[in-house]
Amino acid sequence: METESVSPVLDEAPTAAPVADERHLAAVMESLDRLMTIEIRPADGKLPAGIVSGLYGACRDYFGEPLTGLAERRLRESVATNSTVFIATGAGIGPWLPQGETDGPMGAAVLGRAIAMTLKARTVFVTEARHEPAVRAAMDSLAFPDGFEPEIELVAPGEKEGRQTAQRLITLYQPTAVIFIERDGPGTQGRFHGVRGDCRSANDVAQLHHLANLAGRSSILTIGIGDGGNEIGFGAHRRRIASRLPGDGTCRSGCDSGIYTVTKTQVTISASVSNWGGYALAAALAASFRDPDVCHTPEEEEILLRACIAAGARDGATGSANLQTDGIPLETHQHVIALMKTIAATTLARTATVERQPTQVFAPPAVTNRSRFVS
Questions:
Q1: How many angstroms separate the CA atoms of 313 and 239, rounded?
Q2: 176-189: pLDDT as tens digits
Q3: At what angle do helices 67-78 and 52-63 cross, to 10 degrees?
Q4: pTM of the predicted structure, to 2 decimals
Q5: What is the mean pLDDT of the chain?
Q6: Does the pLDDT of residue 253 top 80, yes or no?
Q7: What Å distances lie between residue 46 and 41, 194, 295, 313, 320, CA to CA?
Q8: Partners of 158 in the beta sheet?
């Protein structure tokens, strides 16, 4: 008996399942962690090379999950609508970087805007006077949502000033989170260090780490973002860092504590460039809220960088006014930013478009009564 060959008819195009589920988000966060930790420092001695994987590994072992994902989730859990989030930044000191460096203020501004766009919280940038021009320039380079325009608070150098200002700011604003990005924390002897091992007197530095200590005691979420281990947030990982980076982190002045800070935060993001850690956290928020426009653009990165340089900030690797951050040219940062935005956009819900197919796509095989087998 002959059988009729029937091809299926697609009456409706199938709809793709939502992609922003927990498993997909975890994969996105993993990708962002990998991207922000590309080992990219040149071996020219200007910045320590080959330390990125060790620093990240120390933090990842401690937390046991992608750092951007953990930070993003904790922000969503902690930050209330119309509350205030502190972002403290500003690194560098004279004579090398008398008005600070480009790494830090740019990442702080991008992250602050992302928090405003997604969590609907206000940002207060906390810094010291020498870094204020670059922080303000970065802040003014981005369009924040109406009603969520950021503010700046300054902390004067010195132990007493740092403690008193931390108490005043916590009492005044009652923040729901305090984030540090590229902000030095003290070592065991109370001195502050740059990633190269240069030692700074506590009297010459605004001691923003008191914000981290007070916030921690007040059950306020704290997040530290850095790239050298000397920044606020790496205090919980000192031993792991030392075991992974033997011989590194020594103080040029012979300080026994080395460069690694003792100041802890509840979450630590370790990146190749601190700005990248801030950008990755912004992209994590964008992915979670399915809004890639939360990320900034490569064009905005150039605007940010030029604004910070015009305000007196310099490249932290060379001390120059070149269009680069941590010795890495602008174009490279722009490519990383584009990739982060593309990764964040993968959580957008999509509908598969399938065109109606003709009833008969291929001609059915000719039917014959002849037996296929011969006995």
A1: 33
A2: 999 999 999 998 88
A3: 50
A4: 0.87
A5: 87
A6: no
A7: 9, 12, 30, 17, 12
A8: 206
Please write down the HEC assignment for all residues of the chain.
CCCCCCCCCCCCCCCCCCCCCHHHHHHHHHHHHHHHCCCCCCCCCCCCCCCHHHHHHHHHHHHCCCHHHHHHHHHHHHCCCCCEEEEEECCCCCCCCCCCECCCHHHHHHHHHHHHHHHCCEEEEEECHHHHHHHHHHHHHCCCCCCCCCEEEECCEEHHHHHHHHHHHHHHHCCCEEEEECCECECCCCCEECCCCCEECHHHCECCHHHHHHHHHCCCEEEEEECCCCECEEHHHHHHHHHHCCCCCCCCCCCCCCCCCCCECCEEEECCCHHHHHHHHHHHHHHHCCCHHHCCCHHHHHHHHHHHHHCCCECCCCCCCCCEECCEEHHHHHHHHHHHHHHHHCCCCCCCCCCCCCCCCCCCCCCCCCCCCCC
Q: For 116-152, how does the pLDDT look when each residue is reduced to its tens digit (9 = 90+)?
A: 999 999 999 999 999 999 999 999 999 999 999 999 9
Q: How confident is the model at residue 309 (pLDDT cuts 50, 70, 90)?
A: very high
State how far the Cα of 235 lies from the Cα of 65, in Å rounded to an integer: 19
- Region of poorest pLDDT, from 44-48, 132-136, 177-181, 245-249: 245-249
54/242 Cα distance (integer angstroms): 9
Please state the length of the chain: 375
Residue appearing with tokens 């002897």: 189
